[in-house]
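Can you please make up a protein's amino acid sequence together with its fold in token form to help me picture the idea?
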Amino acid sequence: MSILKKIRHKAQATKGKAKKGTGRVTGNRRLKAEGGAGQATGNVKQAGDKVKDAFKR
């Protein structure tokens, strides 16, 4: 797996976490939900990267 893709997936998870936290602080449910979805997507992609790397070896 390309290092750039790994960085992109980690950034997506981090961005989602920040968005979720901002939504929680401001009381904005839509922002909190979007952030949670972005965080989950980034985490799933990171898990996929780990599986691909495990089968490479």
